[in-house]
Structure formats: structure tokens, C-alpha cells
Amino acid sequence: MCLKNRTFAANLSYMQAIRNIAIIAHVDHGKTTLVDKILHQTNLFRDNEEIGDLILDSNDLERERGITIFSKNVSVNYKGTKINIIDTPGHSDFGGEVERVLKMADGVLLLVDAFEGPMPQTRFVLQKALALGLHPIVVINKVDKENCRPDEVHDGVFELFFNLDATEEQLNFPTIYGSSKMGWMGTDWKKQTTDFTALLDAIIEHVPAPKQPAGNLQMQITSLDYSSFVGRIAIGKVARGTVKENQQIQLVKNDGGFVKARIKELHTFIGLGRQKVQQVEAGDICAVVGLEDFQIGDTIADFDAPEGLAPIKVDEPTMSMFFTINNSPFFGKEGKFVTSRHIRDRLYKEIEKNLAMKIEETDSPDSHLVFGRGILHLSILIETMRREGYELQVGQPRVIIKEIDGKKHEPVESLVVDVPQEFSGKVIEQVTQRKGEMLIMEPKGDMIHLEFNIPSRGIIGLRNNLLTATQGEAIMAHRFIGFEPYKGVIPGRINGSLVSMETGQTTAYSIDKLQDRGVFFVDPGEEVYEGMVLGEHSRPGDLVVNLVKGKALTNMRASGKDDTARIAPKRLFSLEESMEYIQDDEYIEITPKSIRMRKIFLREMDRKRSTSKANV
Ligand SMILES: Nc1nc2c(ncn2[C@@H]2O[C@H](COP(=O)(O)OP(=O)(O)OP(=O)(O)O)[C@@H](O)[C@H]2O)c(=O)[nH]1
Ligand SMILES: [Mg+2]
Fold first, then answer.
1. Which residues does residue 240 pair with via DSSP β-bridges, in sequence order?
2. Whose CA is nearest to atom 32 of ligand 1?
3. Are the beta carbons of 289 and 230 closer than 8 angstroms?
């Protein structure tokens, strides 16, 4: 073994030793914190440099939400070895992102929260890593938490490996314990250390150096980056041969076609940044500038004898949503990009890098069906578009129903809820109402741990209801498991909508007068239009209301003041909340400044006509 290693090292004496690892885990288990702290400790920053927390979550939306959305490449130099680290998102909606970047790794750090233990997404990412034959190191993180249970969690992780049919070798995974936040890792959680030495040593020891088979160039593009200076940048691991600056290559496309191109520039990942280099050998991860027409999954290959690598496959989407141009009366007032051409181009640009997203054309050139992995997956795209200046409308998200053996099947998810004992009854009630089936109920620290299988349909809108029912105490996570026979009707929102009768400005007077009819989503003085959803009716069925009235008042000012004081504050919706809220005859209108809900048919007459047609 030792001898073999030495010969290997001698052969490669001209190049640096490398390890490629991806950090995978359930959402919030501490991946980004760990990578950040490793970067700090390996002295990437000058002592006097001002740096914030979680520098890696650099995108605006990531910072606002405190989650990772895009995977990132960084590297550290440890004892003469370059360790390429890929930070990945933990939210299940971004599973597609994890699936493709795993292609760059030879090993994974499976992070598990020392209190929570393995969660639905831990299972998913581990399964993908094991299937690719990657070498795992288990990191039990957050042992600084007061109620943590690292030993139990370790047993849970072992059981998970076992259930996922890990090989004998994979089952022998090394385990490291520690706290990313406090900046230490060790082999015994009771013995706090002062740094990450134990973890970095484990990476060097247990993760194999990347394979470097003989042959001509092969590099599969697994990520994409943009720069306003150089355009699109292709990122991937050189799997075979050497890639050089100015080299003529052939791009082997996913569909088997070939495109001739030239490598303009090459960059490797150094710390948080990149370094321009002349060539990159097999085994290292790099960024390639100068390729115009490429897609993720394409292989950069030899010019004379190009050979493509197997295309990247990611799991299918589970949800679809109708995207259409904004045709509300407020069209074009707040956005820069509003035409169907704009929206279409933007959507097609998205699927070049967002592999888990798909687009289908509809009968109308103004509308597209966009398929994704969940509400968050779709809402991040919408939110990004609106920040870029787009205006659009979307319909109610729908789960994908499949016909299998002549029977209707629907996506089903595994749902985990941890909740204080006194609320467990309420959670079970809510979930069963939505066709959830309870599989496990057991104590977990001072909480109750519940596991269900539930149709994805039942999860839409569930989070809000559970939080209300448990005074915000429920911690919930879910993850798609497969298609199962349709489970029957799930009761939706019972209350109807309060719909605007007129276009104009709302008045305190009229809102006040109608407060007993429901809850409003608008304040006095807001511009509304006929057919816009202004609130939730306190009863089933929609009610058309006029909030624009009030001009008849003689002493507007004085009475306006009094009315405002009596008016309950409007109910605010985030984009995701409105996506989970709207009915199938409603749209959400999204502009850079506003999110409004509206009826698809703005005039009451047209709505009546369409329902009577549907009932024929
Ligand atoms: N107590 C404690 N908290 C931690 C530790 N590591 C991370 N956290 C906290 O856990 C939260 C999530 O940390 P992140 O590093 O963003 O988690 P992540 O796994 O990157 O999350 P996603 O990328 O969204 O999947 C933050 O509030 C961290 O401060 C730890 O070792 N101990
Ligand atoms: Mg993260």
C-alpha cells in the first residue's frame, strides 16, 4: 500500500496532491459555516481584513434567507495538499444542484446535526453520494448545543448507511465530531480541540486522490458561472488528460453533437478566489473561459478524437407552475422586461444551469409551464427575475400527476416534524387531514419526533398551518420519495376571496365598513384594480367588494383619520406564502415592486361565465 502510494506520488512529482470533497447535509446542519471557518483557519485572510460571517453565501437572496442556493467551489492548502471543497445547498428543493456537483467530488463530508440527527435530505444526498461510489466521512456537527446527543446520532447515521445498502467499505466510515461555529473538530466529542486538524487529516487519509487515467482530454461541465467581462464560464473536474490555455477542443454535447471551440483562459480555485493558470491536469477542478455555446453536462474533449462522458442525470421535477406575461391593468408600470419574448428568453437561460427545472410550451406564446422541485425552487427563480426587472404572472403551483399502469399516481414525500409534546396531537391532526400517514412517533430529547408519508399536495400550505397550530414551535422538513397511487381529495382553503369591484385607490372608510367580511391584504390608499384579490372572505365563496368608495364623505380628512385608527393591519404575504395561498382561478402578479393576487378573469361577468361553462 505504502509502496504503491510512493510510486504514485513519484509519477506525479511535478504536480500537487489533490483531494476533491463535497460537503453535503440536510438544510441548516452547518455546511457553509464549516467551509467558512476552514477558510478562516487556513489563513486565507490577512489579519486586519474585515470579513463578515458566511462569506460563501454571497448571493443577495442567500444572505437574506440564510440558506445556500448555489453550490460553490473553494480550495485550501493543507500540509502540501490542495483540498478542493464544494459547498452545497441543503434544502431539498435544490437537490438537483447537489446531484450534479457531486460529479466533481471523490469524497463527501456528510454533516449531521448532533441534536437533529439524520433528516430527510441527509438520506437523499447520502444515497446519491453512495451510488456514485464516493468515500464518505461523517461529521457530527453542533456538539456545542446543550441538548445534543452525538452518540445516538452516530448510531442513527450508521443505520441510515445500512438501510441505503452501503458497501462494507462505506459502512466503515470515519466519524469526526465538533462544532463548526466554535471552530473545532476532533475524534471524541467530549474532548474539545482548538482547530480543524482532525477533520483535515481525515480528509487526506480517507478521501482518495482523484483518479488520473491515461488518455486524451475529458472534462465534464458540471457548473456554470457568469462574468460581465468574459461571459459564460464552464466549471468542472478534468477527468482525463490535460487542458491547456489556447487549446483547440471539441465540445461533446449532451445530445451527442460536436462543436469546435478554443479554451481562452483557465482558472483554478485558490481559497475563495481563482488563479489564472496555463494548464490543468486530470484530477483538479477548474473554470474555463472562452466557450460560448455549452450546456451543463457537455464534455470538453480532445480536438481530434473527442469522447464524451455520460450525461448528467438529475431526478425529475415534482411540481409545475404556469408562467405568463403580466396582463393586469397595472402592466408595465413597474418592470423593465415585460414581453413574452423577454420572459421566454429568461426562462430558457435558466434551464441551462438549473438542471432540475424544465419548461414546456403551451398553446399560447405568452405562457409557459415551468417544472421544478418544489415551491422554493420555483419561487427563487421568480424572486430573482423580479429583482432583475421582470414583470410576470404565475398560476397556482400543481404537483405532477402521472399515469402508471393505467392508474393515477401522485408525488409522495417523507415528512418529519419535531415538536414539543403538548402540540403533537395538533400536528398529527393537521397532517392526517391532508392524507398524511404516520409512520414513527418517538421522543427526541425534550421533543416528540414524528414521521409521515404524505402527498406533496398536502404539503402545500402546511408549514403555515403547523406553525400557527404549534405557536411557531414545530420544526418540519420534507423530501420527495416517489410516485404512489392518488390518495383522494384533500380539503383546500375553505374561505373565498374578497375581490375588488373597481379600479382606484382604497379608502379607510370603505375598508373599515367591510372589516367584518374578512381580512384585508391592502391598506388604505393603495392602488387596486377590478378583479384584484383584496382579502380573504370570512366564508366560503368569493365576495366582490368595493374598497374604492368613500368619496361621498363630506368631511374626508377627519373621518379618514378615525377610520384608519380602527382598521386592522393588512395581512402580508411573502411570495412563497402567496404561491401556497392562491386558488386555481387566481394568478399572482409579480413586478419588481409588488406582489398582487388577482382573479384570472378580472370581470365578475367573465368569472361567472367561465364557472358556468366549467359546470356544464
Ligand atoms: N450551535 C451551533 N450552531 C451552528 C454550528 N454550525 C452552524 N450553526 C448554525 O446553524 C445555522 C445554519 O448554518 P449554515 O452553515 O448556514 O448551514 P448550512 O448547512 O450551510 O445550510 P444550507 O446551506 O441552507 O443547507 C446558522 O445559524 C449557524 O450559525 C455549530 O457547530 N453549533
Ligand atoms: Mg449553506
1. 218
2. 142
3. yes
Q: Give residue-wise pLDDT tens across range 407-455.
A: 999 999 999 999 999 999 999 999 999 999 999 999 987 889 999 999 9
- Percentages helix, strand, coil for the chain (3-state, rounded to 5) are 30, 30, 40
| CA atoms of 70 and 225, how far apart (whole Å) | 10
| Nearest-atom index, ligand 1, CA of 35 | 15
Among 27, 28, 110, say which to mutate for ligand 1: greatest number of ligand atoms within 8 Å of CB.
28
DSSP state for residue 63 in the 8-state scheme: H
CA nearest to 330, candidates 526, 498, 522, 509: 526
Ligand 1 pocket by C-beta < 6 Å: which residues?
Answer: 25, 27-33, 54, 66-68, 89-91, 141-142, 144-145, 179-181
The confidence score (pLDDT) of residue 48 equals 46
Query: Measured from the CA of 53, which atom of ligand 1 is nearest?
Result: 29
- Burial class of residue 311 in the structure, from the number of CB atoms within 10 Å of its CB (0-12 exposed, 13-18 middle, 19+ buried): middle
Chain centroid offset of residue 295 CA: 20
pLDDT at residue 156, as a whole number? 95
Beta strand pairing status for 17-24 and 81-87?
Answer: parallel
CA angle 449, 452, 454 (to 5 degrees): 150
- Sheet-wide strand order for 175-179: 72-78, 81-87, 17-24, 107-113, 135-141, 175-179, 184-186
| pLDDT reported for residue 231 | 84
Q: What is the pTM of this model?
A: 0.88
**Which residues, in sequence order, are CB contacts of 430 under 8 Å at separation 6+?**
462, 465, 466, 469
Which of 181, 196, 376 should be mutated for ligand 1, with most atoms under 8 A from CB?
181
Using one digit for the tens of pLDDT, what is the confidence trace for 363-380?
999 999 999 999 999 999
Pocket test for ligand 1, best of 24, 32, 33 (most atoms within 8 A of CB): 33
Alpha-carbon torsion, ordered 509, 515, 518, 524, to 10 deg: 30
User: Which residues, in sequence order, are bridge partners of residue 301?
Assistant: 218, 250
